[in-house]
Amino acid sequence: MSDLLERLRGRGWRMTAQRRVVAEVLEGDHVHLTADEVHARAVDRLPEISRATVYNTLGEMVSLGEVIEVSTDRRAKRYDPNAHRPHQHLVCGRCGAIRDVHPSGNPLADLPDDERFGFTVSDVEVTYRGICPNCAATA
Questions:
Q1: 119 vs 106, 113, 125, CA distance in Å?
Q2: Which segments within the chain are labelled E, that is strand?
Q3: What is the pLDDT of residue 123?
Q4: d(C-alpha 106, C-alpha 92), whole Å
Q5: Angle at Cα 70 formed by Cα 68 and Cα 22, nearest 5°?
Q6: Which end of the chain lies in a sparser environment, N or C, as judged by fewer CB atoms within 10 Å?
Q7: Angle of helix 51-64 versus helix 17-25 axis, rounded to 10
Q8: Quick one: pLDDT at residue 125?
Q9: What global pTM score does this model have?
Q10: Is the pLDDT of residue 1 over 90?
Q11: Are strands 68-70 and 78-80 parallel, antiparallel or unpaired?
């Protein structure tokens, strides 16, 4: 069973065939699919699954904190199942490919006290941008 399926079951989330398929589609490393990509892959496994069901299921998974919504630039939101593994993202500026990265250090600690403006900072999002090897090879 996948890590995401195990986490959802552990929360007592009712596992319908549709929910299971969406969770299975999101399984793997460096998974950052749009809702439409999740739907297309889910239809391959369960032809009767609707787009609305996929969108609703993704929304529920995000609300539960089991999937992260990733927004980069003006592209469609992507869904990342690695919600419990702290990481940042590396994004290709040409094709939009996204990879999970785990830089050393603590970005929260890197923010000096005088730059916090009295905020109690609870989270940091860092996005690294560049050109992936595939796009660089075709340039």
A1: 17, 9, 16
A2: 33-34, 68-70, 78-80, 88-92, 98-101, 127-130
A3: 81
A4: 23
A5: 55
A6: C
A7: 70
A8: 84
A9: 0.83
A10: no
A11: antiparallel
